[in-house]
Amino acid sequence: MKKIALFTFLILTILITLATPAIGLAQTPPPPGEQFNGDQLIFGENYVLRSSQTLNGSLVIIGGNAIIEQDAKVTEDIVILGGNLQVDGEVDGDISAIGSNVNLNETSFVRGGVQIIGGAVSQAEGSTVLGGINRLNPQTLMFNFDRFDFTPPGSPSPLRLFTSWMRDALSNILRILAMAVLALVVALLMPRPLRVIGNTISDQTLLSGGIGLLTLVVAPFVLIVLIITILLIPVALIGMLVLALALLIGWVAVGYLIGERIASMLKTQWVEAVSAGIGTLVLGLIVWLLGYLFCLGGLMSLLVASVGLGSIILTQFGTKAYPQPPTVVYVPASTPPTPPPAAPISPEEFSPSPKED
């Protein structure tokens, strides 16, 4: 049950972040009593939903702080990554927190549940959480197939090797299927950014791969420096989450491009969600099977991650199309000018001249 809750929590976090149509950076809250429509994404800033105000949507806070005052209301979910959340009002959905502190004061009312990883939650007397508080452990996300041992004691080693391979195969297939389903959902929520990223991968493969590989090399050192400073640990946490999200979307974009190529080979056309789901499934199977040939699986994963991450950087998460390569137009060599047409001859010029006597 904990594993299912963690899967739901992680997918909810990703989907709400991707599906946010309006990005609010240090947005000025609406006047008291006013309703604010649309999801809100707060990045590195503070957000206050004041008394008598209503947010008709979800609230996502990355590296910032949020306060839901008494008599204020959020009609959907709240997701917070690396910040602090204080709730005095009402939340109709769930509260999901990663590396964050959640304070539920006396007047808070949460109709959903509270899921938290790597943080703390405090609930004052009088606070109500209908869905309960779940403190999740990231290790529950890992599949453990070792307990499925189909070989009786004393079985020969070849049989044990075969059953071990079957467990590994089943584990990998489930992960590949889960990734394909996630890719399908991502494509449903953000079809246009996915097309922009896919076009950039197709047109700027080498540039995307180079930028992505450089980012993968430099990012760990930058994160280590931020963690060493201690004060910048929240910034390092945000950086890791953004990097993980970029790698995920980049992988899905590569799968989407593969799906488009498969559809073209079959002389058909699929919607973005179908292309992303099938392409990501094929990509996962290829990487898994190449893993049995020396280190080709790891090399393939590195190439896909680099190209996908580079295209994310070039397109700013698919919000801006990267300039297309210039089109070379071949102009034919100049030809001698065509002489102008002769002037028309009047009828008088054709009339015979009179004979002289």
Chain oligomer state? single chain
Number of helices: 8
Order of strands, main sheet, comes to 1-4-7-10-13-16
- Biggest pleated sheet: 6 strands, parallel
Q: Which spans have pLDDT < 50 for at least 5 consecutive residues?
A: 1-30, 139-151
Amino- and carboxy-terminal Cα gap: 128 Å
How many structural domains can be distinguished in the coordinates? 2
- Helix percentage: 40-55%
Average of the residue pLDDT scores: 77
- Going by helix content, strand content and strand pairing, the class is alpha/beta
Cα shape: globular
In short:
By secondary structure, the protein is an alpha/beta fold.
Question: Can you walk through the features of this model?
Answer:
The chain has a six-stranded parallel β-sheet, with no helix packed on it. The N terminus is likely disordered. The protein contains eight helices and 17 strands. With 357 residues, the protein is α/β, with parallel strands linked by helices. It is 46% helix and 16% strand. It folds into two domains: 139 residues, no CATH class; 159 residues, no CATH class. The protein is globular.
Kindly list the characteristics that best describe this protein:
single chain; 357 residues; alpha/beta; 2 domains; 6-stranded parallel beta sheet; 17 strands; 46% helix; 16% strand; globular
Helices and strands, with pairings:
Blueprint: H1 2-18, E1 35-37, E2 40-43, E3 46-49, E4 54-56, E5 59-62, E6 65-68, E7 73-74, E8 78-81, E9 84-87, E10 90-91, E11 95-98, E12 101-104, E13 109-110, E14 114-117, E15 120-123, E16 128-129, E17 133-135, H2 157-189, H3 191-203, H4 205-228, H5 233-265, H6 272-290, H7 296-315, H8 347-350
Parallel strand pairs: 1-4, 2-5, 3-6, 4-7, 5-8, 6-9, 7-10, 8-11, 9-12, 10-13, 11-14, 12-15, 13-16, 14-17
Helix pairs in contact: 2-5, 2-6, 3-5, 3-7, 4-5, 4-7, 5-6, 5-7, 6-7
